[in-house]
Design brief:
It contains one helix and seven strands, in the order E-E-E-E-E-E-E-H. The chain has about 120 residues and is mostly beta strands. The chain has a single domain, classed as Beta Barrel (Thrombin, subunit H). A six-stranded antiparallel β-barrel has the order 2-3-4-7-6-5. Strand 6 and strand 7 form a beta hairpin. The two termini are about 15 Å apart. The C terminus is likely disordered.
Amino acid sequence: MKHERPGRKWIRYACLQPCQIISRNRVLQSPRTARIINVSRTGALIESDYLFWPADEITLLLPESSIAGMEGISSMYGTVRWEQVDPTSCMGTYSFGLEFETIIPFRNFFSPAYFDTVYCCA
């Protein structure tokens, strides 16, 4: 399911996909369980029980071939741009916006027709 809002450069696609996150600028670098709520070519909305702060640099570890449009990508590097507390969330208390360091390459399956017929996450 795609999410469009005026002013956004890229369409977001709903995706309830488990993942792991490692902070690259904190002493404790063990993977933290999280979930991708939606994803675009330039970033993702992440939900977690662990608080990440704006400017935190993190590694997003993805299950192999789990997200349509990101097949073959096992990890992404990015920077937290914002965070919020959400005590009513299904999984995590915290949500944050992650901006990827590199744009995900455009492929045919990032076309609207692909997401109209296929679920974002397996």
